[in-house]
Amino acid sequence: MDSIQIRFAVSLVTSFLLAARALKRKSVDLSGVLVGIPVMVIHMLAGYRFAALLLVFFFTSSKLTRLGEERKRDIDAEFKEGGQRNWAQVLANSAIAAILVIIFAAINGGQDRCLDTKQSSLTTGLLGGIIGHYACCSGDTWSSELGMLSTSQPRLITTFKTVRKGTNGGVTIDGTLAAAAAGFVIGLAFVLVGLLTTECAGDVAWRQLLIIPIASAAGLCGSMMDSLLGATLQFSGYCTLRKKVVGKQGPTVIKISGMNILDNNGVNAVSVLITTLLTSITCMIGEFSMVKIDSEALGTK
């Protein structure tokens, strides 16, 4: 069996085992599983590093969603046990990456590649985009889940006025730090798995470390972008009947912030798209700059 056939077999087994576990723990519903399985297969066929990013995002997000469930139940109007995600939420957090992964695999014939603009700027940009995607998704989730448990009151990102917990666009110091930490974990996972599964030339291998600070920044940037969109284009209001912050207008709802243009999935998709593009460009510029520094250093010897 060649490497792609092995990856396909491993991806199927892994996907079905994860799907069974996720359903049992109510991390996703059946529609989420039906979408999640092909997404996982696509990622693993393209390379183990991509599957690792998806798995790190899934496991850490699921774990943090379960953390402090009783307190979140009292705050979140749309609380679901286990954070049960449906097909729309799965796609909002994986569709763009899946498209980039397919393009990456098609260009490179199913073989994984290193960040190396000398070999291919397009490949470097695609890698950067995929990393930025999961750094953003993880940053947003970590920030939201840990920020909700913060002892400090959130402040609306557009006005810095204190708002109720659960308000779209509300930020805390704890949540902000969590977003950067999430990006760091995504970058570290990409580098560590790459050391085991991807062959890089000696002068290229050390440049893969560039991903860690870029991913950390992407996690923070993605979370801030999500908060900004949530504060402006997503409605938040306080329901005097339910005594909770809600995302829909109604006769018992007092507006807090935002216009009723995007829902939560829409905000996630837009923030992911913007962060993906920014990270892709940053990786190409950063890697190109490091190649230039290496060339100049060799020229002086």
Please count the helical segments.
Answer: 11
Strand content: 5-15%
Q: Report the order of strands and helices.
A: HHHHHHHEEHHHEEEH
**What is Rg?**
20 Å
- How far apart the termini lie comes to 46 Å
| Averaged pLDDT | 88
Q: Into which percent range does the helicity of residues fall?
A: 55-70%
Question: What is the total tally of β strands?
Answer: 5
Structural class: mainly alpha
Protein name: Protein PGR isoform X1
Organism: Phoenix dactylifera
Subcellular location: Membrane
Keywords: Membrane, Transmembrane, Transmembrane helix
Kindly summarize this structure in a few lines:
With 301 residues, the chain is mainly alpha-helical. 66% of the residues lie in helices and 5% in strands.
What report would you give on this structure?
The chain has helices at residues 3-24, 30-46, 48-66, 69-75, 87-92, 95-108, 121-147, 173-197, 202-205, 211-233, 264-299; strands spanning 155-156, 170-171, 236-239, 244-246, 253-257. The protein has 301 residues and is mainly alpha-helical. The chain has a 3-stranded antiparallel sheet, with no helix packed on it. 48% of the residues are buried. The chain is globular and about 60 Å long. α7 (121-147) crosses α10.
